Amino acid sequence: MADARMDVLIPLILYFIVIYALGFYSMRFVTRASHREGTGFLHEYLIGDRNMGGFVLAMTLVATYLSAGSFIGGPGAAYANGLSWVFLAMSQMPTGYFTLAVLGKKFAIVARKINAVTVTDFLKERYDNTLLVVVVSLAVVFFFIAAMSAQFIGAARLIQGSVGVPYETALAFFGISVLIYTIIGGFRAVILTDTLQGIVMTIGTTMVLVAVIVAGGGVPSIIQGMLEIDPGLISPYGPNPELTSMAWVASFWILVGFAIVGLPQVATRAMGYKDSTSLKNGIIYGTVVSMILLLGMHLLGAFGRTMVADLTGDLVVPTVTTTLFPNWVAGIILAGPLAAVMSTVDSQLLLAVGAIVNDIYANLINTKVKNTAKITFISSIVIGAIVFIASFDPPELMVWLNLYANAGLISTFLWPVILGLYWKRANTAGAFASIVTGIGSYIAFDMYWARPLGFHTIVLPLILSLAAFVIATYATPKPDQRIIKKFWGI
Length: 490
Prior knowledge:
Layout: H1 6-33, H2 40-47, H3 54-65, H4 68-81, H5 83-89, H6 95-102, H7 104-114, H8 119-127, H9 130-163, H10 167-215, H11 219-229, H12 246-258, H13 264-267, H14 276-303, H15 316-324, H16 327-333, H17 335-365, H18 372-390, H19 396-403, H20 405-422, H21 428-448, H22 459-474, H23 481-488
Helix pairs in contact: 1-2, 1-10, 1-16, 2-10, 3-10, 3-14, 3-17, 4-5, 4-14, 4-17, 5-14, 6-14, 8-9, 8-20, 9-10, 9-17, 9-18, 9-19, 9-20, 10-14, 10-17, 10-18, 17-18, 20-21, 21-22
């Protein structure tokens, strides 16, 4: 700690104090809800009593699907590949709009009708199969624990690099803070801190981008500088044409545009808003904030090439920030990438806890739904402890799970959720076939044919899992009329 940069650390500590305050504010709602009977506590803890307004909905949705990659890895790739990568990254911009447009109103109506507080609740009612609930719940727990461990490590490295404290200290500072406010405040704490973090990210991104443009003498001067370094940096095809091939660009749009709908931490946001006005406002605000953050951060990475040379790409944001601003301002701005990690991790933790307490315990073990508050807190502490300990030295299994976490979650949820919501003929056999084919073919492609036909590894497994869903559905009996009546009222 003797080498810690206190002028960077103190703003971060102040930021975390505000985060704690939001957690303790939300704890009042959780405490009151703990006296409710039945699923009342879980409604507050896992979905915040479905009370999100439009602005909060937009900020929590954007903050959740933007992770450290959007603030560290993405600008780093733009630093290396120039404006072509900025164009590629913009495929993420309509994700919020797309999620709310595809799932939004119908998902929210159905969720209220069947009293669902998690995506697995929806699948349980739609497909009426206990084994499917167990498989999906276990997938959520294992994949999210692995994904959280990777996020913990990334956040600790960011704090270590910018503040100058040992890795173990940075990990404890970050991990314990996230676990405390999430455990005591539940979903309400998560969306409130997401909103604060979204505001911090937006202000920080705007400040740094404007400072870079001013320091570089304006956009024309910066573009000229990029041209002199490498003409490929301002070409739509980039210095590496392989990264801008038609197959690769299409893959990117599928992976970070369309398929994001299949991530449960994103889909859950479409279940918790208050009314139709909140949904419309959420779509507008979410799209605008996404554009500011994604365009701003990736332009910062591309323009940063003219200001600092010979960097490892991932260092471009912290390096440019500490170059242009006093350390105490840089500390505030660097809270942006940290906020992106926190907003991803807290949502993953909450969903992993929901999978254990709501999807397995309340749905299958104790259907009278007693002692849920106690089981929830114990589960949260146990999962948090596992992630924290694993982040010091991740075991081989966790490294493997993290490698397949996003693809596994998308393969598990994408088609069962979308087709279950819009296709009356969709049935249990189709859902199982889709999950098995999606995860199995992704692992096989990743091991033996990582770039099939020039596409990203996830593309063909998504097509195969859709085909498997349709074939298995038509080869087996139609869903029970009771289910059709429950979801479509006919």
